[in-house]
Amino acid sequence: MGFKVIILAAGKGTRFKSELPKVLHKILGKPMLWFVIKAVQKSGAEEVVTVVGHKKELVEGFLKKDFPEVKTVYQEEQLGTGHAVMCAEEIFRNYKGKVVVVNGDTPLINAEDIKALAETEGDMAVLTSRTENPTGYGRVVRDGGEILKIVEEKDATPEEKEIKEINTGIYAFDSQKLFSALKEIDNNNAQKEYYLPDVLKVFKSKGYAVVPVFTEDFESVMGVNNRYELSKAEEIMKARIVKDLQLKGVTIHNPHSAYIEPEVEIGKDTEIFAPIYIKGKTKIGENCHIGPFTEIEDTTVESNVKIESYCWIKGSVLKESSSVGPFAKLRPGTVLEEGAKVGTFVETKNAHLERNVKANHLSYLGDCHIGENTNVGAGTITCNYDGFNKWRTEIGKNVFVGSNTLFVAPVKVEDNAITGAGSVITKDVPENTLAIARARQVNLEGKAKSVREKNKQKRKKS
Predict the structure, then answer these.
(1) pTM
(2) What pLDDT is stored for residue 1 in this prediction?
(3) The CATH classification of domain 227-435, taken from the options 3.40.640.10, 2.40.50.140, 3.90.800.10, 2.160.10.10
(4) Rounded Cα gap, residues 233 and 409, in angstroms
(5) Residue 317 Cα to chain centre, angstroms
(6) By CB neighbour count within 10 A (0-12 exposed, 13-18 middle, 19+ buried), where does 427 fall?
(7) Within 13 Å and on the Cβ side, how many CA atoms surround 80?
């Protein structure tokens, strides 16, 4: 049978000391809630309902963008976890299957544990784990295979405090029995809140089966309550992603310094030298080389590409056997075709370099198209902005661009042309044409000496 999930995401997260809702604080570029929903969906849940509250418009905005299929219900006042689940009752009124309740601040939760919880027989299943330092957690008191009670630390006896098995706050319930039991819990406690674990007492009083589901991975059920714990969770997630890539055939040197976001894809036999930052929906092919201190975001890198050290690449496409860097900046809209090269201190933006184009150093190529086998000399600039509008430069095939050429766009250079070094090209250059656009050199013999003497006199007077 299938199951449905309620994610509790209404809390403010006071200990974060932030205006941002707790569940929207990010790990590896994604809100914590993103990881929880991904795990829930991977587990096979047929429907996901998220309880929102504090700054609900921000949480709902995130869900609408990334998970439009997820339903939301509103907890107007944050009156505890039991009250939060009550807010979802209307959606589950006619549902007779299992419902799993997960906290939105547990980004490390495993899909396998959610699935195991949902498939466990019993009226209530409690996900438990074990830790040598259970301080702060509710203790699970068992009678063999069934849970007798969950004791909060403040209420635990000295013997109960010695128990290492803890309540993770993640449960599976018979849906109809859950919402019936929620009507019987009260808020007679210091916080005046309705607590979901209190349902266990109601279930036990009615003779319902309450069973534990144990997970060995304590880290996976760790809640995140402040920015320190957020950083610890990010370190764990980083290690998971790196390990997964390594097991799929990717070599990562200095792996502890590799920042790789969860939607990144990398092919086998690619070699990565960290520190490295690979973000967004970047896809990297097989047998690539990526040097250290490089940042790549939302970029497609095909196989056999070489990216040297200290490069910044965003929103670009690097085709088979192209190469970049070191010290190159590729801005959005850059496309390097097969064998193209962008070298040291070259910046590109909305630039399409065809096969085997070489721009080896010290150039800015913006809003341009450069034909195959063209060589771009050092110091080349496509002057694409006139102060009001952006204009394009079109350069054909087999063109030789002399060093320090400035193309004042809009301008077109046709196939097999040559520009002389130091030229300022303001007009179109026809095919097979040598274009030289610079002032004639004038040599004034002896003038250098007089200039130096004049400057010397000026310095004395000052």
Answers:
(1) 0.91
(2) 67
(3) 2.160.10.10
(4) 50
(5) 19
(6) exposed
(7) 19
**CATH H superfamily, domain 3-221:** Spore Coat Polysaccharide Biosynthesis Protein SpsA; Chain A (3.90.550.10)
Report pLDDT digits (tens) over 375-412: 999 999 999 999 999 999 999 999 999 999 999 999 99
Report yes or no: 435 and 417 within 8 Å, Cβ to Cβ. Answer: yes
Helical segments of 147-206, H only: 158-161, 175-182, 199-205
- Which amino acid appears at position 60 of this protein? E
| H or E segment and range at residue 239 | helix 227-247
Which residues are annotated as catalytic? 361
**How far is it, in rounded angstroms, from Cα 330 to Cα 325?**
10
CB neighbour list of residue 121: distance below 8 Å, 6 or more residues apart: 209, 211
Q: Which two three-digit tokens encode residue 249?
A: 């055939």
Tokens of 369: 């198209």
Helix/strand/coil for 236: helix
Tokens linked to 291: 């040097």
What are the residue boundaries of the structural domains of the chain, listed by start?
3-221, 227-435
Bridge partners of 7? 50, 102
Residue 300 forms beta bridges with which residues? Answer: 283, 317
